[in-house]
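To whoever is on call:

I kicked off a structure prediction for a single chain this morning and the downstream step that reads the tokens threw a length-mismatch warning. I double-checked the sequence; it's 121 residues and nothing unusual in it as far as I can see. Pasting both halves so you can look.
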Amino acid sequence: MEFFANGELVKKLTQAPFEFAWEGVGAGQYEIIAAVTDRHGQVVETPSVKVAVSQGADITLTAPTGDITFVPGETVRLAASVSQGGADITKVDFFQERRVDWLDTEAPFELDWPENEPGLY
């Protein structure tokens, strides 16, 4: 099984399952087909599927800035700046210790963290 994007070979598989993760794809429009060749050399192609890949968004934590000390219980402003790329942004998740603790669904993406405790974050 061969997979093509805009006429260029993307992946060739010789064993089932005939699936793979297409990684490192640049932004753009793609026409995807799969083709199989039987033992007699007969090639059969799937109908094409059109796929649009948009550029991902970029996000930067703008507040607080690094290396700042806060007093326990002091309200700390969390803010993020987002450039959309080719996608609509529906929310920004704010993580603490690798878990989502807060989220904001409207720009500007910011919130106040009122109950911080002593520790490194």
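Update from on-call: the warning came from a stale cache, not from the record. Cleared it. Sanity check on the structure: The chain has two domains: 2-53, 58-113.
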